[in-house]
Structures
1.
Amino acid sequence: MARRPLIAGNWKMNAGGADGCTLAANVARLTAGFGNVDMLVAPPFTALAAVAHELSQAPRKVFLAAQNMHFEMSGAFTGEVSPSMLKESGVEWVIIGHSERRHIFGETDTMIAKKVIAAMRERIVPIVCVGETLDEREAGQTLEVVQKQVLAFRGALAENPGYGVIAYEPVWAIGTGKVAKAEDAQEVHAMIRKLLAAASDELADTTRILYGGSVKADNAAGLLGQTDIDGALVGGASLDAAGFAKIAEAGNQVAAAQA
Ligand code: PEP
């Protein structure tokens, strides 16, 4: 079945002030004609409310995501932000378990599963990231590692098939300029979809699985043309509205050709 491509921009710790509003407005303007794809931006916490306001006046729908959240609703968690706080800021999506959260901030599969459950409960769409390190890939452990990560939260996604999103982001490809070969990425995406199918066909057919890791305008079409790649999670290249729009254009063309 055709899944609508999602082109998502993870701004990381960039564009956290007024420049975030300008970037979001430019993304909306430059992608206004691409009706076959969903667009999303994930600014830092500090810019969420302002970008939500900016996007409410935009010429197209651009979804707004946070880059992380805590799984508790309130309490003594200094420096953390809860799902309900995100909602109050106009956020409807959240990136969970990004490799930088896993590897720099020590997030575990257990914590990530709790966050996915909390997001689904609060009606915030989770984009859950998985991916192997270079050592794991070279040791031939890619499928095994990604399978373990997916199985940790599959049950939560199965509660509401098609609501949550998975992003396969090989750690060695993030921010390195080393993009995965389209057919290698497709192999992992197909394995993830098979894991979803083991829970239910509906979950497998409706869950969007994004690829992330050095996606740029010149490699997007090859990746997005793969059967099980339903969009892109873009880091560095999403900070340039024109380049990000070119990735969206590639997704738009692939979707139009498949329609
Ligand atoms: C990311 O941060 O999710 C990412 C994929 O980064 P980049 O596109 O810069 O590799």
2.
Amino acid sequence: MTRLWNDPADFADEMIDGFVAANGRYVRRVTGGVVRSTVSPAGQVAVVVGGGSGHYPAFGGLVGPGLAHGAAMGNLFASPSTQQVYAVAKASDNGGGVFFSYGNYAGDVLNFDAAQERLRAEGIACETVTVTDDIFSASTVEKHKRRGIAGDLTVFRVAAAAAEAGADLAEVTRLARLANERTRSFGVAFTGCTLPGAAQPLFSVPEGRMAVGLGIHGEPGIDETDIPTADGLAELLVDKLLQELPDGVDNPEGARVVPILNGLGSLKYEEMFVVYRRIAQLLEAAGIELVDPHVGEYCTSFDMAGTSLTLFWLTDELAALWETPVDTPAYRRGAVAPQERAMDAAPGTPAEADAVPAADDDSRRLAVRVAAAVETIAATVDAHVDELGRIDAIAGDGDHGIGMQRGSHAARDAARTARDAGAGAQTVLARAADAWSDRAGGTSGALWGVILQALAARLGDTGSPDATAIAAGVSAASAGVMAYGKAEPGDKTLVDALVPFASTLSAQVDAGASLIDAWIVAADAATRAADATADLLPRMGRARSHGQNSVGTPDPGAISLALIVTAVGEQLAAEKETVR
Ligand code: ADP
Ligand code: MG
């Protein structure tokens, strides 16, 4: 139960403000999160971590010498946007490239990958290792699909120690990958967590029971049992983790292991020490040499009561890196030499915020219609916000309506500003796309950013595109969404509405239909396809884990997409009427 907040919508921002005010010795605020307030050597690889807020000390609490250079900090339990990740990485870069690491969650992967692509396009070298330590989130065959929990710490530390020692980006990446390979975690939970202002916990565990393998955002576990004794829990945790030794470890006997017993938010340290006592006995009995044991909070899940055990299986190389001293707000190891403070730079603002690229009159006229279309999108979302939230609550987390509202309102405002500044059609829509994904949060926000960016690229800031170019833009949007989100038709996502929309639009235009006529037929196809998602089982996104619940209910992202393309089609038709 969270008791203290002002406006719940401001909670994450105000939390970051207070965190920075209390830790100026280590961090300074930048757009999208925090970076070190101390100077890093020129050419040093910058280690950038991040994720949703609500996991303190992950991620901002782990920024400082010996650990991360920057942390992108999203809203509560929501991935940081592409712009946030990009801005934090830019502010962290020391000229040696950027190394990204974060827990493996779909929304984070989308946004970090998009930021990485943008940085690479600017000539900044980037590499990524996502953390996949939770053994209960997927089988060994699908190890790459596992989510990241407290094992974040080992991967971040190894990457940062390598960077500190002067390793280049490729070497940092190799070592981080090795650390991830040799890190395994497993957790249990006794209660769910309640986000600020929420009336209900995000999920719940029955009184007296323990969820086994439960994820840090309530993703279902594999089992539920009565709460065991402290020793019983230690036995369960050790047993499961010794059943899955990492590649390269044939026998626990003689291995060196860093054990991390992590509290998820409201478990007492004293309880954890009682459990750890038995864990240490069991690991030693298995012939394991324990190195630098950790008992405490390293990755929490708001006020969830629960704990996880991580075993980090050292090699000589990893053991040497583990000696690197660290000094961050929430995590200290050894003694770090005094650090030079960075000059207080103003928080970054997007450089191109005001100036707009040159445009011709044709494109400016089109820009007015584009901005009007974005207004229509926002109005359509407003009219259906409750319904979209309700559909998302059935199998997802209920935030689709408000996420789409935040995104489309920000897009509408950005489009207006760019239009008033005399921007062409491409710039107006591109600014709307950025604002949308930046403000929306969630998976759909990132994907709407991709959709509008792909479309914007075909509009240009000069001249005016024909129907074929627009249809090609919609096809590019559809391909882009599939490339980023990795969902395919039939997975019960917005792809199920977007693909038929794009293909019908192209087919109609190719057959000689006008853009308006083609759009209306395509919007109809999207609506039918969105309705038909009711029969599907979700295979992607958050809804994947609650599959069965959603049969009979359509996918919220597909429905909102169909509503939007329908409304835009009606607007195109109305514009034609007025022109005539
Ligand atoms: P979140 O899932 O982060 O809470 P939203 O609730 O705003 O985000 O959006 C949920 C919608 O996002 C789903 O209904 C689905 O249409 C879409 N979605 C989720 N994952 C994917 C994906 N990998 N590819 C395409 N669409 C996806
Ligand atoms: Mg949702």
